[in-house]
Amino acid sequence: xxxxxxxxxxxxxxxxxxxxxxxxxxxxxxxxxxxxxxxxxxxxxxxxxxxxxxxxxxxxxxxxxxxxxxxxxxxxxxxxxxxxxxxxxxxxxxxxxxxxxxxxxxxxxxxxxxxxxxxxxxxxxxxxxxxxxxxxxxxxxxxxxxxxxxxxxxxxxxxxxxxxxxxxxxxxxxxxxxxxxxxxxxxxxxxxxxxxxxxxxxxxxxxxxxxxxxxxxxxxxxxxxxxxxxxxxxxxxxxxxxxxxxxxxxxxxxxxxxxxxxxxxxxxxxxxxxxxxxxxxxxxxxxxxxxxxxxxxxxxxxxxxxxxxxxxxxxxxxxxxxxxxxxxxxxxxxxxxxxxxxxxxxxxxxxxxxxxxxxxxxxxxxxxxxxxxxxxxxxxxxxxxxxxxxxxxxxxxxxxxxxxxxxxxxxxxxxxxxxxxxxxxxxxxxxxxxxxxxxxxxxxxxxxxxxxxxxxxxxxxxxxxxxxxxxxxxxxxxxxxxxxxxxxxxxxxxxxxxxxxxxxxxxxxxxxxxxxxxxxxxxxxxxxxxxxxxxxxxxxxxxxxxxxxxx
Length: 551
Fold this sequence. Notes:
The protein has 29 helices and no strands. The protein has 551 residues and is mainly alpha-helical. Helix 24 runs antiparallel to helix 25.
């Protein structure tokens, strides 16, 4: 594979420029935008001759179809898709063939039977043009006229017909013939079942594969995303300010729940491009969980002034109302986002959260199931289903959905703690203990208190030695700053340890933890009692001491 670090960056820049024009001509506007952004990012650090511009790439058929093609393209840009397709019927160039079929596809998407969006689920209506497009593409393939762009469209059609496995070879063919066809790379990343599945494909040995690897790891929420992006920026300094790589880095911090770093990176990206709405929904999530209401308010206002009809803008406004506990308004804005884009995965998941807040459990379950149908590998919706059934006091169902979330995020302690609590609810204490131990071993400072859960379980089982070991670790980690525990967890720990060491006649340790009890208002009286008992025991007086753990 040709690595970016070994390439002449001037050649890379020229390829991006060529691709941005080719993609725009075929109406693939998002991929054209992406290629243009990469070119713009590189142009500030790469010197190019003044006359190095894309050109001279079209055959005779293209120029023969030029007038009709340009007219049809203007109709396409105005979203008059059937009109565009009509005037391209007699055109023979590859560009015209693709634009005609793609126009039919988009026309079919617009004319799906209404309603596209129902209350809490997606309509199952199918694009009526899919069969026609598939038949025409099959004929083109038999005639050896299926180019990279039509191969991509063939994959899109097959995926829409629930033939995802059949679509993958066409996507591989598309990126092999046109390595800068970004939408094909993106679609391939979505369809692959895992990161490892990419190694089984015969992908082109082109530097674009490195961008694909970043996209694939971001799509699958891989723990390796951060190291991949940082390594790429170290090897190719021209990518240090690249918006795509920096956004992927911000997403890596988000998945690792490092919200401070994530927020900082999104702020830098917004300074470079203040009118960018891509991934602004994730940024609003970060502000939400960080409790930054004022910043979220400013972000929502800014997004609405840019484009109040973008689904991301509606999403940010919904988060703003949610942080203010105005859940009915939050629900209305999430629904508005879904009316604009019925496949907006994050909006479905958060709409489910909002329904939980207003006690609409059935609505929440429907939303979560819709999200899992859109992307079965998104752990958040499975986790939401687990929480919903936990609220309904159906621990067996909760365990099933938490386990699904854990399979997708095996190194996320939240999933393990949730699975452990479900096991505890059905009386499987040994399995719960294993889950808490594993969650504690992961060692992320995410406020889970997995070690505290393990300590309390040992305490309830009467394993005072193991409980004491866990509580000592909690106090030591909290005081050293290695991990953050809630104040209530630390209060429980110091109280237990003062009594435990007093019971063991280890007066020095008992006194140490009793002194810590004095530091908190809630345990000050208890700490004073422990110190009084310690003083009495040191004098040889008999004092009745309760067994640690209150068992």
